[in-house]
Amino acid sequence: MKRWVLLLLWAFYGVAPARTAQTLTLAVEDDWFPYAAERNGQPEGFAVDVVREAYRAVGVDVTLKSMPYARCMRVVRYGHMAGCFNSLKDASTVRFYLFHNTPLFVADIGIYRQTGAPLRRPLTVNSLEGKRVGLTNGYTYGDAVERSVAFRKEYALSDLQNLRKLAAGRLDYVLMYSRVMDHLVGSHALEFRGRFQRVGTAIENPLYVTFSPRHPQGEWAMEQLDAGLAVLHRSGRYHQLEQRWAFGKASPGGWHGQRP
To answer: How far apart are CA 4 and CA 238, in angstroms?
Structure first.
């Protein structure tokens, strides 16, 4: 009955019924600045801004809930939430999640050790045979790392914890995204400045929001994000966000002995 009343009002007075805003809730990792972290009780970071603005561009009101990355992926895998970010698309994730076409961003994972003599050539994952290598629990590092049994994988609860283990000599190497490394060394300068050296690259890969095939909004949310990202790229707004977060140029550091 109410629907007919609204339609009659529209017909007689030319007033359309108000459109209900589309809403969506996503999970976001809480400790991966400058891409995504919880700060002052709110999600903040480059990826957070990209996701929010992409959905806004297509009329979707998105709410973000911060949580540890391992939990973020778990709640999406079992359909409790529609999506989680930021994730690699590799053999360990494509079995359980849906992925949009346009990535949120592209980032590289550096290989770091304690500062020492410069190397003649950069290290790769294959160079780590027999070494103790620090990884962060719940993170994915690409197929070459995930499938390798040549080196000893030692897991920590956070990237910061891995850096402290490396500084203490409890690890030979740490694999870490270069922007995250820059941030951690910069924000703990008294503890870390000059202590570490980038000696290679493990992988350079795009990162995504992973969506749940089990959640009723999963596929729809994926399609809406792709549409919104297309708007950001066409309009130049994506580039503006890169510049705001100083992502318009390559991260400093290199295999040849740069000290973060």
So the answer is: 43
- The answer to whether residues 207 and 106 touch, using CB atoms and an 8 Å cutoff, is yes
**Which residue's entry shows tokens 């694999």?**
175
Cis peptide before 122, with omega less than 30 degrees from 0?
no
Structural domains of the chain, with CATH: 20-105+206-244 (3.40.190.10), 107-204 (3.40.190.10)
**Cα separation of 139 and 145, whole Å?**
11
The C-alpha atoms of residue 209 and residue 221 are separated, in whole angstroms, by: 10
260 preceded by a cis bond (ω within 30 of 0): no
d(C-alpha 179, C-alpha 32), whole Å: 10
Neighbours of 186 (CB within 10 A): 11
- Within 13 A of 240's CA, how many CA atoms are on the CB side? 8
Residue 15 pLDDT > 70: no
The pTM of the full predicted model, rounded to 2 decimals, is: 0.79
Residue 81, C-beta contacts closer than 8 angstroms, at least 6 positions apart: 25, 26, 27, 65, 75, 212, 215
Mean pLDDT of the chain: 89
Secondary structure letter of residue 200 according to DSSP: E
Structure tokens at 223: 């399609």
